Amino acid sequence: GIVVGHGTDTMGHTAAVLSFMVQDLPVPVVVVGSQRSSDRPSSDAARNLIHAVRTAARGDIAEVQICMFGPTSDQYGLLHRGTRCRKMHSSYRSTFRTVGDIPLAMVSEDFRYLTQDFRRRDPSREPRVDTSYEDRTTILYYYPGMKPDLVEALVEKGYRGIVIAGTGLGHVNKPLYPALKRAIEQGVHVVMTVQTLWGYAQMYVYDTGRDLLDIGVVPLDNMLPETALMKLGWVLGHTDDHTEVLRMMRESINHEITPREPHNGYLILQGGLPDTEDFIKGHWK
């Protein structure tokens, strides 16, 4: 297996793009870092590295994974799939969370696999390395009052792809429509994700979403915005043909789009609120 040391701030981006650039892995690739430096008594560096090396040496998941603390204590680490993981807290050691799915496994002295839906280690498998990448891509987190000239400036500067993290089910306000329409007509590839992180872009539900579909904005279901940005750059490194770009973006390579979210994939512990506790007791065995 392979261990990749990385800073935590952009670890999710790196794990995502590696998941596209290196496919059919024969062994685990484990991305690891620490939230707190090794000169601090509360550092998670050593424990994370131990878990990552153990995963690379003995783990059965031949995919790109992030290995970091599970709980805030050092009880165990979690292995997160590279395309479905995000840093969710600025300082907690348990900052990395799988979004829209469940983690792959727990790791301590041994492994507890939380799913069987992964590619297994097979040293005879030949990996495919494909590092083509177009960096003239960007992401727009929509906010109320966003001006159309932001989109126009990106087109003017030669950007080839735009990921929108839209509100609700994948929406932006109507003043942006003409700018997005012109961008698409000029060959810019525009895709939609949701800034809620959990859930799906379902643009056919409301007329605002349907209008964007008519313009040519393409929904990416429950792909995370940052994963979509990494994938769009990788796809545009291979083709600029609009039909092929959209086909590749909507074809799941490594679980960046999932057909459904598990009942225990969406858990936010709101300080032990009674209804949250009841939900967990009733659903998470």
Describe the structure.
The chain is of the alpha/beta class and 285 residues long. It has 8 helices and 14 strands. Strands 1-3-4-5-8-9 form a 6-stranded mixed β-sheet, sandwiched between helices. The protein has a 4-stranded parallel β-sheet with strand order 11-12-13-14, sandwiched between helices. Helix 1 (11-21) packs across helix 6 and helix 3 runs parallel beside helix 4. The chain is globular and about 55 Å long. The mean pLDDT is 93.
Secondary structure elements and pairings:
Elements: E1 2-5, H1 11-21, E2 22-23, E3 29-32, H2 45-58, E4 64-69, E5 77-81, E6 85-87, E7 96-98, E8 105-107, E9 111-113, E10 128-129, E11 137-141, H3 148-156, E12 161-166, H4 177-185, E13 189-194, H5 207-215, E14 218-219, H6 225-236, H7 242-250, H8 274-283
Parallel strand pairs: 1-3, 3-4, 11-12, 12-13, 13-14
Antiparallel strand pairs: 2-10, 4-5, 5-8, 6-7, 8-9
Attribute tags:
single chain; 285 residues; alpha/beta; 6-stranded mixed beta sheet; 4-stranded parallel beta sheet; 8 helices; 29% helix; 19% strand; globular
Quaternary status: single chain
Across the major sheet, the strand order is 1-3-4-5-8-9
Q: Percentage of helical residues? A: 25-40%
Number of strands: 14
Low-confidence stretches: none
Q: Helix-strand pattern, N to C?
A: EHEEHEEEEEEEEHEHEHEHHH
The gross shape turns out to be globular
| Proportion of strand residues | 15-25%
Structural class based on helices, strands and sheet pairing: alpha/beta
How many alpha or pi helices?
A: 8
How many strands, what sense, and barrel or not for the largest sheet? 6 strands, mixed
